[in-house]
Amino acid sequence: MGKKTKIKINYSICGDGNEINPQECLKCLKVCEPALFLLHESFGVEEENPYDPQIWRVTPLYPSLCTRCMKCVESCPGEAIQVTW
Amino acid sequence: MCDNCLKHGTAGKWYLNARNYSNEIVEEYNLREFLIEQYKNFEQIAVRKIAGFNGVGLGYKIQMPIIGRIVKHTAEKMLHSTKPPTNPLKAEGHIGQVVPLDDAIAILEHCAAEPIIQKYCMCRYMHRGEKDACCINFGVMSEIIEKLPRFIPVDEKFQLTREEAIERFKEHNEKGYIGTIWYGPYPYINNLCSCANPECAGIRPRLDFGINSIYKAEYVVDIKPDFCEGCKECIAKCQFDAINFDPIRKQSIIDKSKCFGCGVCLHACKYDAIGIHPRKDFPELKGIY
Predict the structure, then answer these.
(1) CB distance from A38 to chain B under 8 Å?
(2) Which residues of chain B are within 8 Å of residue A60 when distances are taken between CB atoms?
(3) How far is A77 from chain B (nearest CA, A)?
(4) Nearest neighbour of B60 by CB, restricted to A43, A52, A64
(5) Hey, what CATH topology would domain B219-285 get?
(6) Are B126 and A40 in contact (CB under 8 A)?
(7) pLDDT tens across the length of chain B (289 residues)
(8) Nearest Cβ partner of B127 from A35, A50, A53?
(9) What residue spans define the domains of chain B?
(10) Using CA atoms, how far apart are residues A26 and A9, in angstroms rounded to an integer?
(11) Do B183 and B93 touch, CB atoms closer than 8 A?
(12) Number of helices (H) and strands (E), helices first, in chain B?
């Protein structure tokens, strides 16, 4: 077991109602082989309809499963993802 | 038989006991509001903190010497909980088991409470971004779904009759999805899912992190060497890495200790070489779920 993989997402570019709406983009989720990203509603945002939330963000949920293939970094249209180890 | 069957199966399998599907349990535990609240926040559950821990970076947390054991213990205690559920933001008492096609048909024919619906698989949406209507729900879940528009399939009929539900389930099973039945929350059964690895949030903790979040089926698959032609079709279907190819004999071989008994490989075999047998027929697998 080598160094831990760290995956960072810049939420000022992607999600939380900023430039890129992850619900429409979904590129990182689709290219990730171990499917380690999680798409979920943003915390603490005032939603018009809490039963059908519109403001979402992506969290790298299980970085331990990352294969370091960098496909998510390449596919991100806003260059919001950083993978380091 | 597992503990759940002994307690709730009336001398059979827990998921074939119609009481576990009944509205009595919904009323007893007041599950209507509970389930609305839970599914309203479904995608957030993994990132919410529970007892100081959330699911982010679970793999690394589990690897830590002492904290890892606490995390595993806390998670299993929550999933296996048999107390009345209190917090809808936790996956309390949400434990499932793999079911092969025949048992799933028996559930849909005899046990599942009306109305029956199909909805988008939340796991596949939150982990893969795909909307695939492959979850079959019954009873009170079908009633509250109208409040949660993001799960309702577009351009597809979502209210199903029993026959349609069986037809849909067969389609998914042949495609290679694993049939799973879930307490949600214990002791109420409302989900018959068609899961795929690695997207399934229920199977993955067990396969990747060793958290016992789903039981193996009551069955196990066996390959008859006399019939196997070595076409490898079954290997491609197995999501648990239980089937391997023996290059010397040019045949598929199965590791029964890894087999979850989902029976998906049966659809792939053209030579009738695969059979599905009750787990208790194999002494080495008795009691291992």
Answers:
(1) yes
(2) 56
(3) 16
(4) A64
(5) Alpha-Beta Plaits (3.30.70)
(6) yes
(7) 556 666 666 557 889 988 899 989 999 888 998 999 999 888 898 898 877 888 899 999 999 999 999 999 999 999 999 999 888 888 889 999 999 999 999 999 988 888 999 999 999 999 999 999 999 999 898 888 888 888 999 988 899 999 999 999 999 999 999 999 999 888 899 899 999 989 999 999 999 999 999 999 999 999 999 999 999 999 999 999 999 999 999 999 999 999 999 999 999 999 999 999 999 899 998 888 8
(8) A35
(9) 3-49+58-215, 219-285
(10) 14
(11) yes
(12) 11, 11
Size of interface A-B (CB pairs under 8 A): 70
Q: Which helix (H) or strand (E) holds B108?
A: none
| Contact residues, chain B, for A4 at CB < 8 Å | 60
Are residues B129 and A29, on separate chains, in Cβ contact within 8 Å?
A: yes
Determine the distance in angstroms separating the CA of B40 from the nearest CA of chain A, rounded to an integer. 6
Residue B179 tokens, joined: 């049939």
Task: Write down the pTM of the prediction.
Answer: 0.90
Residue reference for tokens 């792939």 = B268
- In order of their start, the domains of chain A are 6-84 (3.30.70.20)
- ipTM score here? 0.92
Chain A CB contacts of B38 below 8 Å: none
**Which residue does chain A place closest to B59, by CA atoms?**
A64
List the structure tokens of B107. Answer: 């559930």
* Residue B189 structure tokens: 């059964």
